[in-house]
């Protein structure tokens, strides 16, 4: 029913397999099929990289809108219908598209489901590979040939079959050409590294945010910091080694991608100069004599300041302050008053 998903994923996987055959790797070797799965992941993630950038912008846009959203929630807390209408109006006004933030995650699900189905098909085809007289179509599904199906079904990574699972019995693992103890060790190492990459990615996402979440959002982020790596550890119980290899490569890619975003596309709030940096650049160097500001200049710039027409006139230095008696200049007494005519008659 989902052949339209299984066939393209199998075709990309086989193209990488043919390329590694051309460079000299054993066509039935585990290294060849392991690299084919790894480069299948890299192909998918490269195609989704631009959408991931849009997802980052979506998350940052969502953070900048939080104050307005909180105001709407507080204002229309008793009218949820009106609150939804106001939020949609705000999103349209800001040109906000929630689908762009979820699209990369949704587009990875079909690849994951298709690869899981193809690997389970290869695992179930092992018994048919040991029947030379079998001429059915089960060994030639999804653009695979009979030799490619049987070679991938018995491919191993460090002695563990790629089609094997942790819940398989020892007999099932032996049919796939491996040993159960070796397969358990390889799967545990792989899921531990995957969980570590997921935990590191969560820390990098938190480090890239200029503001820390508060209240319920902070609690959710703290839970996700530990629940997602624990979910990765739990996946080792249910999925084949080939799917875990896909997961390991995808988580490692996500961690490197987040490092790239934090370094080359930091949040705009993190690019502003920290407080005090401007004052440090204007402070005099050790041993340097302080420079006095000239009349008509400021202490920060040496360019003369042109007085504005609207600015009030600057009072002269010797002008008396309001309420102050005018000061006489030294050795300059006011001239004696001339005697009036009445004093002369006396």
UniProtKB/TrEMBL annotation:
Report the membrane topology from the UniProt record. Multi-pass membrane protein
What residues form the membrane-spanning segments? 33-53, 182-205, 225-248
The cross-references to InterPro entries, in alphabetical order and at most eight, read:
YidC/ALB3/OXA1/COX18, YidC/Oxa/ALB_C, YidC_ALB_C
- Similarity field: Belongs to the OXA1/ALB3/YidC family. Type 1 subfamily.
Main subcellular localisation: membrane
Residue ranges with Low complexity bias: 311-322
**Compositionally biased region (Basic residues):** 330-346
Instruction: Could you list this entry's UniProt keywords, alphabetically sorted.
Output: Cell membrane, Chaperone, Membrane, Protein transport, Transmembrane, Transmembrane helix, Transport
List the protein's name.
Membrane protein insertase YidC
Membrane insertase YidC/Oxa/ALB C-terminal domain segment(s): 33-263
Protein's job: Required for the insertion and/or proper folding and/or complex formation of integral membrane proteins into the membrane. Involved in integration of membrane proteins that insert both dependently and independently of the Sec translocase complex, as well as at least some lipoproteins. Aids folding of multispanning membrane proteins.
Summarize the subunit comment. Answer: Interacts with the Sec translocase complex via SecD. Specifically interacts with transmembrane segments of nascent integral membrane proteins during membrane integration.
Query: Where in the cell?
Result: Cell membrane; Membrane
- From which source organism is this entry? Jatrophihabitans cynanchi
Region Disordered, annotated ranges: 277-346
């Amino acid at each position: 029913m989902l052949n339209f998903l299984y066939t393209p994923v199998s075709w990309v996987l086989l193209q990488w397999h043919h390329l590694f055959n051309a460079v000299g790797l054993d066509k039935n070797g585990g290294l060849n099929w392991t690299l084919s799965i790894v480069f299948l992941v890299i192909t998918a993630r490269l195609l989704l990289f631009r959408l991931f950038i849009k997802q980052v912008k979506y998350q940052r846009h969502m953070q900048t809108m939080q104050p307005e959203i909180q105001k709407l929630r507080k204002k229309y807390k008793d009218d949820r219908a009106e609150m939804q209408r106001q939020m949609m109006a705000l999103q349209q006004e800001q040109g906000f598209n929630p689908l762009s933030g979820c699209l990369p995650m949704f587009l990875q699900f079909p690849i994951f489901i298709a690869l899981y189905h193809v690997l389970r098909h290869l695992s179930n085809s092992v018994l048919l590979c040991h029947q030379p007289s079998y001429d059915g179509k089960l060994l030639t599904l999804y653009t695979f040939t009979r030799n490619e199906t049987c070679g991938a079904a018995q491919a191993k990574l460090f002695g563990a079959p790629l089609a094997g699972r942790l819940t398989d019995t020892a007999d099932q693992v032996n049919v796939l050409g491996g040993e159960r103890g070796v397969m358990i060790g390889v799967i545990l190492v792989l899921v531990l590294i995957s969980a570590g990459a997921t935990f590191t990615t969560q820390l990098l996402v938190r480090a890239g945010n200029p503001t820390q979440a508060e209240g319920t959002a902070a609690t959710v982020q703290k839970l996700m910091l530990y629940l997602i790596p624990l979910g990765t550890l739990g996946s080792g119980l249910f999925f084949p080694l080939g799917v875990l290899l896909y997961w390991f490569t995808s988580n490692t890619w996500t961690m490197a991608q987040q490092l790239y975003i934090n370094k080359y596309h930091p949040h705009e709030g993190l690019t502003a100069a920290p407080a005090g940096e401007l004052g440090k650049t204007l402070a005099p160097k050790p041993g340097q004599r302080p420079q006095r500001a000239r009349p008509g200049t400021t202490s920060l710039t040496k360019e003369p300041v042109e007085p504005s027409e609207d600015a009030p006139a600057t009072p002269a230095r010797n002008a008396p302050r309001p309420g102050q008696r005018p000061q006489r200049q030294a050795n300059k007494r006011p001239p004696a008053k001339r005697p009036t005519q009445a004093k002369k008659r006396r």
